[in-house]
Design a protein that fits this description.
mainly alpha
Length: 177
């Protein structure tokens, strides 16, 4: 029988490490995708943010209220705030890692073109204001509902949709300009 997240959080609050591991297994992939995109694949800082997010689940799990939001929303909210704190502390400077050199050019030309397009999109995404970038990442890449993303960003669904529309327009400008 699959244990509900609410029950797992209750067990975690009581110090059950197995419950913590199960929650980590359920939520790590989604949060990793979100944080890596927000941090422009800056893996060392992204790992720190992920560790801090799950540390806060362990230490502050009693603050989670299933009547207010889903656990994934609560965890994404923590990760989002940690990313924003990082950008503010570091004046939004995020260094991009250089892709590894390809040894067999002929076999990898198509992959290289895809990597260049992805890198261009990533560079342009990093030029968006954090809230616009976060809204696009949550809804487009993470597949979150507008309602859940709005909760994480502390805004209304209408304001979230406006953030995404402005972000998409700016992204289109950056990519074509």
């Amino acid at each position: 029988m699959d244990i509900s997240e609410e029950d797992l959080v209750e067990q975690l609050v009581s110090g059950n490490e197995d419950a913590y591991r199960k929650l980590l297994e359920r939520h790590l992939p989604s949060l990793t995708g979100y944080v890596m995109r927000m941090m422009s694949s800056n893996s060392a800082d992204a790992e720190d943010i992920l560790q801090e997010t799950f540390l806060r689940l362990w230490t502050h799990g009693r603050r989670y209220d299933p009547k207010v939001s889903k656990l994934s929303t609560w965890l994404h909210n923590i990760a989002h705030n940690l990313c924003i704190d990082y950008f503010r502390k570091n004046n939004r400077m995020v260094l991009e890692e250089q892709p590894e050199e390809l040894t067999d050019q002929d076999a990898h030309l198509e992959n290289l073109a895809n990597l260049e397009n992805a890198a261009q999109i990533e560079r342009c995404m990093m030029q968006l204001p954090e809230r616009q970038r976060s809204a696009i990442i949550m809804c487009h890449y993470q597949g979150m509902s507008n309602k859940d993303a709005a909760v994480i960003l502390g805004t209304s669904v209408e304001a979230l949709e406006s953030l995404m529309a402005r972000g998409r327009r700016k992204l289109r400008q950056l990519l074509t300009g």
